[in-house]
Amino acid sequence: MSFTRRDLLKSSAGVAVGVAGAGLVGPGGAAAQDMSFKPEAGATLRVLRWRRFVAGDEEQWVANTKKFTEKTGVEVRIDNESWEDVRPKAAVAANVGSGPDIIVGWFDDPHQYPDKLVDVSDVAEYLGKKYGGWYPVAERYGKKDGRWIGLPLGAAGACMVYRKSWVQEAGFEKFPQDYREVLKCAKALKAKGHPMGMALGNAVGDGNGWVHTILWGFGGKMVNENNEVVLNSAETVAALEYVKELYETFIPGTLSWLDSNNNKAFLAGEIGATNNGISVYYAAKTSKEDAMKAVAADIEHVNMPIGPVGKPTELHLFTQAMLFKHSKYPNAAKEYLRFMWEKEQYEPWQQAAIGYITHPLAAYASNPIWTSDPKHTPYRDCVKNMQWNGFAGDLGYASAAAMADYIIVNMFAEVCAGDQTPKQAAERAAKRAERYYRV
């Protein structure tokens, strides 16, 4: 989709006048809240982002983009790709030096090709000062060697999504947050005919999210602080043994599940609990069908369980925008990013998607969307509390490539499928990781 000068009424008063060279303006050049970038003459933009799971997300993004075009006259084409296709398309754009100006991608993808990306430190530092600062994990994802190579958009936060009546039928007032109690609840749910189900295929969000959370919850990790591979450990084996037992309570077929499968299974009444973003609740809540409205009333959310380490160890599907050096209109692209991240656009976008993306900037924790419905609230602090992929090492080519290779997901899947013992799977995964981490 695209927005053109011919189709939209331009507001000349909204177009900023740039300062020569820097392209930044503001009263006296000092007021951060007035920063803007002067788009290049005749600028057009192409933006590639992931396809929606929540209709309100895409609809409000398009509406905000229309506002941007009305203000600046810059035509914007938006392409939407499946979650699994964004990463390879971004890699191709980086390698060939052509394609979309901006790609909204996953995790630490910018760290695979930082030399191909425009430094967006001016945009990021302005937004950070204006909106309460970036959460530490967002800054870790966005920066490399002191400069911002990505602009964090947030994360499709994941919680445990469950049917309250079924969990209570299984003997629990609410879904538990202790690993051992989770296992007891899962067994009871299966016995009542309401098995759990969580993705063990190469699912960008759901698959990566819950298995990393459990690995870290037992104290396992791919690498240590010195980027040395330490995956083959007693802690990893303990996590694998636990998930193998948990998997026995799952509905059949989860070894091939991608990010949409658990949504469909939950809404069809086939499973009683899963890990997911707020998209399941959104679909049920906005449905016009009475049966789905009843499901929405029975849905509850709770933050991801805490393991033996005694603190949250969550991984969420982090997403950030990359501005590529092949763009002919970097000022226009920066202005688009600034505009879309400002409160006037960002908060309505969050609200339209009922909190589907958890913010990376602290000020947006006060967005009314998080308290307007108590079922939204568990998603509010997902980014604030999360760890980064590649924990506890550095973000860079190795962490990004290892994530893209699904090493951790595959390790758990091999054990659940019975193809490897926990010890064998840990050894095999460590060898795969060592291909990328060469300290």
UniProtKB/TrEMBL annotation:
Keyword Transport recorded: yes
Organism superkingdom: Bacteria
Cellular component annotations (GO), alphabetically ordered: periplasmic space
Coiled-coil region list: none
A Pfam family that the UniProt record links to this protein: SBP_bac_8
Keywords: Signal, Transport
Transport keyword on record: yes
Principal location: periplasm
Family in the record: Belongs to the bacterial solute-binding protein 1 family.
UniProt-recorded name of the protein: Extracellular solute-binding protein
